[in-house]
Structures are given as C-alpha cells and as structure tokens.
C-alpha cells in the first residue's frame, strides 16, 4: 500500500494533538494517509499500554487513515541507534510516502526532539540502496520521501507555514478525546497531569486559534521544515 502522507509520532496521541486537522483535510482531498507510533506510551502517568493501544486504534479508524503501526521502541529511552533507524526505514520503504510528518525538532518532552532527529535521518537512509532491509523475507527497494515537515507540539516555536484547519477543528478535538485516559480524565482515577484536565483542551483551542489568526483564518496548525521550501505558484500562498 503506497501512502501519500505518513505521520509519525513518538507516542500514541502525538499526531492527533499536533497535525490531525491537517490529516483530516488531506483525507478529504483524496490523499492516502497512514500513522506510525514509535512507542506504546507505556511511561504515561495515566492509562497503560493496553488502553492506549485501544485508543490509538479507535482514533485512526475515526480519522479515516488507512493504517497505524507501532514500532514498539522503549518509551522515554529509545535512542538514535542502527536498530531503530532500520525499523523506521522498513516502514518508510513499505509505504513509500511522498511526505512524512514528524515530531517537533525541540520540545518540552525529550522524546519529541529525539524522535524528530531519528525520523528525519531515517527518511534519508531509506533512500540509500546499500542500506538493506527486508519485509516478509523480501528485499525492499530504496525510497526517500520528498519532504519531512515537523509539527509544532507543546512549545510555541518558530514555524515555516500554517495549514488552515478551520472546517476540521471540531473533528480534531473529537480525535484527541478518543484518548480518554489522557485528556478526558477529570472524573477518573489517577494523578492530575498537565494534560488531564479540561484546561488543557481550552489551551489546545487557543493555540490553534492563535495559528489561525496568523493567516487570517479561524484555526490553524503550524509546521517547521528542516530545509528551505520552494514555491511553484505565488497564488498557492494565502
């Protein structure tokens, strides 16, 4: 199955929080979308890996993505290693995405910046013929995505472009709340965390409104590119 966009996150829910409005928009435009989580999120203060797997499965199906994989790297302790690069290279070659969306280059959670570097480098190595990987016993062909874009996460960092997600914001919030153990937790047992109360959802709305205001729309999602961006048509720019 060839995908147009593969959205990768260090943890289940990274993608929903940061770029799901953009993915919903591109699904409606007819693009094939897939998701990949590096870890099971097993170090999260609330829930557990079983609950988070169930939530992640429900979320990707509700989104309309075609697939969601989990590479089962160690939450909090995964490293930029040959083993982890090859895991990602195998997935990238399997789905041959034109665009990869990845974690923020730097963020409050140390996994996010580490994941950004790992994902970006893996996209490069996936295009090298001498990096050999197999799937189902068969050699994979090299594949390098055309672009890697890093979604903005907890910290408001300098960005390169914003996607208008105004018609999709309500559905984005629904996807986030699919992870009930994490975000809809006011009346549930477990420790209070920076993301577990209704205040966090108000912050999410304010943040997406702020990015929307920057391009004179209601809601937006921001992205950073690790390379210069070229424009074919000035009228593509708002």
Overview of this structure, please?
It is a single chain. With 238 residues, the protein is α/β, with parallel strands linked by helices. The chain has helices spanning 14-28, 49-63, 82-95, 110-125, 169-177, 180-183, 198-214, and strands spanning 5-9, 33-39, 67-73, 99-102, 134-135, 138-139, 147-151, 161-164, 220-225. The strands form 2 sheets. It has a 7-stranded mixed sheet, with helices on both faces. A two-stranded antiparallel sheet has the order 5-6. It is globular, with a radius of gyration of 17 Å.
The Cα radius of gyration reads 17 Å
The unreliable regions are none
The H-and-E topology, N to C, reads as: EHEHEHEHEEEEHHHE
Q: How many strands, what sense, and barrel or not for the largest sheet?
A: 7 strands, mixed
- Tally the helices: what do you get? 7
Share of residues in strands: 15-25%
Query: Structural class, judged by helices and strands?
Result: alpha/beta
Mean pLDDT: 94
| Inertia-based shape | globular
**Looking across the biggest beta sheet, what order are the strands in?**
3-2-1-4-7-9-8
- DSSP strand count: 9
From the N-terminal CA to the C-terminal CA, the straight-line distance is: 33 Å
Helical proportion, percent range: 25-40%
Q: Which SSEs are present, and which pair or pack?
A:
Elements: E1 5-9, H1 14-28, E2 33-39, H2 49-63, E3 67-73, H3 82-95, E4 99-102, H4 110-125, E5 134-135, E6 138-139, E7 147-151, E8 161-164, H5 169-177, H6 180-183, H7 198-214, E9 220-225
Parallel strand pairs: 1-2, 1-4, 2-3, 4-7
Antiparallel strand pairs: 5-6, 7-9, 8-9
Helix pairs in contact: 1-5, 3-4
């Amino acid at each position: 199955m060839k995908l147009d966009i593969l959205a990768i996150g260090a943890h289940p829910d990274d993608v929903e929080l940061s770029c799901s409005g953009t993915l919903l928009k591109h699904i409606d435009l007819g693009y094939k979308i897939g998701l990949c989580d590096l870890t099971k999120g097993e170090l999260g203060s609330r829930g557990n890996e079983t609950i988070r797997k169930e939530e992640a499965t429900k979320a990707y199906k509700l989104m309309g993505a075609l697939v969601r994989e989990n590479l089962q790297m160690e939450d909090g302790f995964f490293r930029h290693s040959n083993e982890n690069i090859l895991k990602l290279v195998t997935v990238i070659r399997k789905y041959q995405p034109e665009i990869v969306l990845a974690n923020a280059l730097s963020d409050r959670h140390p996994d996010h910046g580490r994941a950004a570097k790992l994902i970006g480098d893996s996209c490069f190595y996936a295009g090298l013929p001498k990096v050999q990987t197999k799937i189902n016993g068969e050699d994979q062909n090299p594949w390098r995505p055309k672009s890697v874009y890093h979604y903005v996460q907890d910290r408001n960092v300098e960005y390169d472009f914003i996607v208008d997600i105004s018609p999709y914001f309500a559905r984005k919030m629904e996807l986030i709340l699919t992870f009930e153990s994490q975000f809809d937790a006011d009346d549930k047992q477990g420790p209070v965390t920076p993301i577990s109360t209704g205040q966090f959802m108000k912050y999410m709305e304010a943040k997406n409104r702020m990015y929307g205001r920057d391009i004179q729309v209601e809601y937006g999602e921001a992205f950073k590119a690790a390379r210069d961006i070229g424009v074919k048509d000035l009228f593509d720019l708002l």
